[in-house]
Amino acid sequence: MRILLAQPRGFCAGVVRAIEIVERALARFGAPVYVRHEIVHNRHVVEALREKGAVFVGELDEVPEGAVAIFSAHGVASAVETEAAHRNLDVIDATCPLVKKVHFEGQRYAAQGRDVVLIGHEGHPEVVGTLGQIPGRVHLVRELADIEALDVIDPDNVAFVSQTTLSVDETRDIAAALRRRFPAIVGPDTKDICYATQNRQTAVRELARRSDAVVVIGAANSSNSNRLRELAAESGTPSVLLDDSQALDWDWLAGVNTLGVTAGASAPEKLVTELLETIAARVPVQVETLDGIEESIRFRLPAEVV
To answer: Scanning 69, 134, 221, 222, which has its CA 20 to 30 A from the CA of 120?
Structure first.
């Protein structure tokens, strides 16, 4: 079997930063440190950090008063920040800087008295956090039909921002529809889609074009991983999202001569390696990495762990 690897794939700078924050906090403060929700959407990452002494909690009331508490890469609502302060928690914020950028944009638009439209998926932790960071009138839209139902105070005073891990095409279409309904609307076009999301989506399209089938390694609750699988499928190539190599269905691979493999931004490279080893143990393989963007971005760590 010929196996093509997408470039880039796997961890983005925001995920690397978030994991390093937890590891450095453990080294500096000792176990346990408490992490609100999954630091990133991947159980393998979470389990590895749990083994090192991280304790993952659903809400802050599970964290002992005065303990070290880390916010996940997806960001939190301002009410969570307030609760942490009231409980004297030693907070380290691992929110991705690109998510923070969306928070700041939304807050700036709200301060101008605008209704703010957030393009995103209801219930996703990033969306929950962003909604909770923007004061005033905020409206969530997920699809084109939602735009017609929008009720704003002044159609000439509207702005929009977007979840960072959506598909570029999806966001572009919704932004265009918003502009048709509200010609004076202001917003960042597709610039809120993070660089890693854009790069991985571009790479998976090329991967799908050259493959008989595509495997995306990533968690079922990972938005960016799901988008990668959907984009491969939209290209006409059979695609599947796998948590790891143990979920591989050999019947699904029947007749596949060229298999494309990529990984979501929160999936460790070791899961890709394990998939390749699993396949190679059964059939001869020839592995090739496609040409693509070499990412070199690194985000600054918070002062608490430097």
So the answer is: 69
